[in-house]
Amino acid sequence: MAAIQLFVNGRRRTTETEPATPLLWVLREEFGLTAAKYGCGIAQCGACTVHLDGEAVRSCVTPLSRAAGRQVTTLEGLSAGGRLHPLQQAWLAEQVPQCGYCQAGQIMSAAVLLAKRPHPTDAEIDDVMAGNLCRCGTYARIRRAIHRAANGGKP
Amino acid sequence: MRRSVPPPEGSAWTRRSLLKVGALAGGGLVLGASIPGAIPGALPGALAAGGPADTALNAWVRISASDQVTIVVAQAEMGQGISTTLPAVLAEELGADWSRVKLESADWDPAYRNPRTGHQFTGNSESISSFFEVMRAMGASAREMLIAAAAAQWKVAPETCRAEAGRILHPESKRSLRFGDVASAAAKLKPPDKPPLKPPAEWRLLGKPLPRVDAPAKVDGTAVFGLDVTVPGMVYAAVKMCPVFGGKLRKHDAAAVKSRPGVLAVVPLEEGVAVVAKGYWQARKAVDALPVELDEGPNANVAQDGLLQIYRDALKDPSSWVVTRPGKPEGTTLPAALSAEYQSQFLAHATMEPVNCTARVDATGCDVWAPTQGQELAQRTVTKLLGLPNEKVRIHRTLLGGGFGRRLIPDFIAQAVTIAKQVGRPVKVIWSREDDIQHDFYRPAVVHQLSAALDRSGQLAHVAHKLVSPSILQFVAPPKVSATFDPSCLEGLYETHYAIPSWKVESKLIKVPVPTSVLRTTGYGPNIFALESFIDELAHHQRRDPMDYRLALLRDHARAHKVLSTVAERSGWAQRPPAGRFRGVAYCNAYGSFLAHVVELSVSASGAVKIHRVVAAIDPGFVLDPEITVSAIEGGTAWGLSCAMTSEITFARGRPEQTNFHDYAVLRMPQMPPVEVHLINSGVLPLGGTGEIGPVTVIPALTNAIFAATGKRLRSLPLSRHGLTLA
Predict the structure, then answer these.
(1) Residues B302, B460 contacting (CB under 8 angstroms)
(2) pLDDT tens for residues B564-600?
(3) Which among A21, A97, A130 has the least Cβ separation from residue B281?
(4) Per-residue DSSP letters for B128-168?
(5) How close is the nearest chain B Cα to the Cα of A3, in Å?
(6) Residue B589: strand pairing partners
(7) Å from A71 to nearest chain B CA?
């Protein structure tokens, strides 16, 4: 089987895993990047959200082959230079996580939103974040944290 | 049998066993800091892991020579914030410097049993109510020992010393010693019998919001849930179980998948079959492709109508009713002025983290890494399964990606251990979301019949309440359940404070061919939905304002009256809502706390319900952490809205019809209303729980508001059945 090369959090990675394997399992089991979670396997919950060339994708339904030669970013790669991403800081300031299982996916979805719409409205937040489930019901805090990050860390 | 678990042993908890230092010093406890389940990140400023040189003052707290305080977390963290609040209770009494506190996740040990139940578990919303006094006593005891050691060194009276921010102070002589200076001398002293407790007015950590200790790891991705455990040499398993409850897999053709890439073994199980492979996806694809022959067993034709017929038949049958409240004889003879029937649906837990478990069975015994709420049940299940003594079975609890009661039951742990033993190497078993929803232990549907009689002057004289439910506690606390009675099925009907002159409550336990168990709100959810709907119906029947009606019925109970009058005031109940908007209210006393919700909404002609505002007030006795309590009620409100509007498990052909989040619908962000939570400190002990109660009252407050808006009384859930959607 031909090796597939991809770039994960800025680092070149090579794998011989079967190309139809969902990216999620390759990230978790081969590269040890476990922030992205398995939640549903059918792109219904968003817990597995990562970035593929800057776009949010559900890695549970994204075949490894689709990531060939492209840039993949996971939550582990979101912060830069040892500083938390503004969204991560806002997530702490608003004390968002309860069980925390969905939060990696939530933050990754929010990061793409902010990259495209630096000052989103509530409606724009709801629209983008509707694909990320949270069973603990932290939605109101997520919304506040996104606004806070957009607002330079101020509430 | 996957679905039978051994009952917890009712071993007595003694204060003595907790205070005994020997248990720790003798190495009898498993307190490994290196286990994957240890809470990572812990606290800002925490030092490197403490070593064996640390001095144990009791089973819950150790102090190092360099002043690091290590506090044991024995309750499962599943988002309820317990790993922040309980250690803070101990640290408060100890007089510790919170920035020098490190937490350690404990495995099973008799020292960490719940003092009320005699076994170690996390559930029933009772971690605070059961452990608050324990943690205070442990902190106070350790503090007094440290003070005694310092006083002896200074040759002063202990009463003239105090503990503060990690030091023992002697104000008269302006001397001080660090905890680390006196810890080893303190450990040699006898623990005091009755250490004095700090009055709440002197609390520095409690009553104020503390940042959650587990939040940083959950935000940077380093938090270790069950799914994230890595063990050297680990392989993966996916399972296929008979989809019909009580059925079996008669045959499978292992040869058909053995040559697939990565496949290492096909393991027959009593409940089905597992494929073990190098990678999870390889195991998943292989198990999906595995040809099997089913023996669907006696329940193959079970369908929703037939299931509900069991309830109907039970309601008609006059035998086997168990009376919890007798009512007054003269009340039961009055004619009913109002009667109604309510129905709550079957629900699945659908925790965000699907069921999973990692196990290793080798010459040293068995290690399990699992997101479990049922530490003791897991321990007992595995020791029994493998015929091993307790010291050879180590259940390492990870963080839980939600629990909601599902993870009390060790079925999945027994399964992983069975597979690991068979293949002789560490195995991580991951259920698909479909497995998770289709092989759950469901919140049972419950049917209620209520009727009320009025006296000659038209005042409420008698309420008769009958309910039919399958067992809730059968798998998690079997000794509490008899053939005819399960105490959890009556929750909310014991402790209500409405001044109803005569009130009869009867229940009947039925058997249904689907597994039923605890789920966030247990009996309170269905029971309070029925009761608070009926109280609302009575208010309207008697042409009274539903808030005033309740306040009048609660006039003799100060705490209940206060939560209700608080939501009345904060929601502006006395003022008319904006045009087109309507309000509903509900109240309960559940898990030792008092809660009321007001929901303000509008309903469109097409049945779209828009919730504009939710106002809640809670009195748990004393709010130990305001931020965590508020988030529990916000989140509980969201959970309740899912239950009220869309979530439902129905059965056909002996199995659930729902499989994943596309058909088991839960609340999404656009539907989340603004929720205001008001906190009340009545100061009454014992403290109540706040983790489970949130959904209880929002459901009837919602349906009561819909009645106000539309004149339609919706008596069965979810509301999607009635054509309503949540905008």
Answers:
(1) no
(2) 999 999 999 999 999 999 999 999 999 999 999 999 9
(3) A21
(4) HHHHHHHHHHHHHHHHHHHHHHHHHHHTS-GGG-EEETTEE
(5) 16
(6) B594
(7) 19
Q: What fold does the segment set A4-77 form as a domain?
A: Ubiquitin-like (UB roll) (3.10.20)
The CATH class of B226-297+355-430 is: alpha beta
Confidence of residue B357 (pLDDT cuts 50, 70, 90): very high
Task: Compute the mean pLDDT over every residue in chain B, rounded to the nearest whole number.
Answer: 92
Percentage of residues of chain B with pLDDT beyond 70: 93
Give me the residue spans of the domains in chain A: 4-77, 86-150
Residue in the block written with tokens 């007798």: B326
Q: Which of B89, B11, B26, B23 is nearest to B58 (CA)?
A: B23
When scoring A74, A136, A143, A146 by the number of chain B Cβ atoms within 10 A, the one with the most, hence best to mutate, is: A136
Report the complex ipTM.
0.98
Continuous segment of H or E residues that includes residue B293: strand B292-295
Q: What is the pLDDT of residue A80?
A: 80
Give A-chain residues touching B432 at CB under 8 angstroms.
41
Q: By three-state DSSP, how is residue B384 classified?
A: helix
**What's the rounded Cα separation, in Å, for the pair A87 and B56?**
40
B165 Cβ contact partners less than 8 Å away, ≥ 6 residues apart: B95, B96, B97
Q: The domain B15-216 is classified under which CATH number: 3.40.50.2000, 3.30.365.10, 3.40.50.720, 3.40.718.10?
A: 3.30.365.10
pLDDT tens profile B510-553: 999 999 999 999 999 999 999 999 999 999 999 999 999 999 99
Q: Is the pTM of this model over 0.90?
A: yes
Delimit the domains of chain B by residue range.
15-216, 226-297+355-430, 446-726
The pLDDT tens digits of the residues spanning B310-320 come to 999 999 999 99
Find the CB nearest B669 among A40, A104, A130.
A130
pLDDT at B13 > cutoff 50: no
Q: What is the pLDDT of residue B52?
A: 52
Residue B432 is nearest to which of A28, A41, A132, comparing CB atoms?
A41
B43 touching chain A per CB within 8 A: no
Looking at chain B from residue 495 to 524, which residues have their Cβ under 8 Å from any Cβ of chain A?
none
Was domain B446-726 assigned CATH 3.30.450.40? no
Best of A21, A29, A51, A101 to substitute, by most chain B Cβ atoms within 10 angstroms, is: A101
CATH number of A86-150: 1.10.150.120
